[in-house]
# Entry
Amino acid sequence: MPEPAIEIQGVGREYPSGAERVSALRDVDLIIYPGEAVAITGPSGSGKTTLLNLVAGLDHGSSGQVIVLGQKLNELSERRLTAFRAKHIGLVFQDPHLLPGLSAVENVAVARLPWGKRSQLMSEARKLLVALGLGERLHHPPSRLSAGERQRVGLARALLGQPQILLADEPTGNLDSRTTEGLIALLTELREEMQITLVIATHDPAVAAMAQRIVRLSGGRIDSDRSVPVLRPVEAQKLD
Amino acid sequence: MALQEALAGLLSAGPAHGYQLFATLESELGPAWETRQSHLYLTLARMERDGLVSGRRIRQRALPDRQVLELTPKGRTLAEQWLRSAEPLPEMVVKLAIARIARPELFEDLAAAISDEMAGRLKSLRQLSGSLRVGFQQQAVGLEIARRQAEIRWLSSIRDDAAAILAQPVGHKRSRRDDLRSERFA
# Structure
């Protein structure tokens, strides 16, 4: 067995809510290996985003620990955690939050400016956008891009610097069904080409089906963790 | 579709007579699924001939004798295999409906196993769709993708609501005749 890409050990996350404490995650154990595509699914409020934020180091658990690429995240200072995330983890959100005053290519490059040379980052950003089918939109501001194009810019931004792990939180939440299928095809292709570890949180089981494993959360706990079988696509209907 | 297996599944909960089985199927699955009474009796007769069920006659005072059916070991194996298998997908509704009342302990696992099958097929269809370039093939496969998506979302809602679904009362469609007779088999 290879070393896990992500190891979640007995993680819980509680939030204060008035005089009480609410558990968003309870005693979660999960191991994800390099190159795996894992969907985290479950109804709203089941803990999907909390789990992803913990893996990204955007939040800290109330108990247990998260180990990413062998690094215990709770042992890193905020500054080193930010640098670790920038180097190893790409993040895609439901809303890509692009900066309105910047072009598509600048939006891709800007987040990594503290860690690279501007000319090199811009060149890589251009290549990524072309690979994602946005070669004609490099210099368009976000307002002149469709929702699907904006999400692809967000994806390019996440992939800049070739992270080993891509975390996507409801990446198709704002997309119509046709654009959703396009993004699923793109993510599948990219993951296979780049051998990236993909963790995608989605409430939509039809999106989750793109993964190799589907982890279902319910009330902050893992309800099931099941592999998606490899099957023949379709039993052709008989035309007789 | 799969009437023989559906009847075996229902009988795995205990012996029943033909009309009870018909009434249960009608009340649990109608109006989406229609059960023809004549076909049901023919299927039961065939199952008895094939050693899947055995019947015993119950005498009634004013009415003709009634036959109570129960599964043989062979019939029990058939029911068990059918209720535990996610395949074939087209009859998933029937299978889940019967698991709910006859084998509620299998219901959630069955829904999860069918979800896995569905996800596997959806994934393969998406891969196939990407390679299709000629004629109407991509659109034809697109319809299959849309169907699998709808089914997988439906299954997800079934899993989310499993506890409430299992708590729903069993439907009863009873004729007056059945009421008159039923006390004998209570």
Summary: Chain A touches chain B at residues 41, 43, 177, 181, 184-185, 188, 204-206, 208-210, 214, 216, 224, 226-234 (CB under 8 Å).
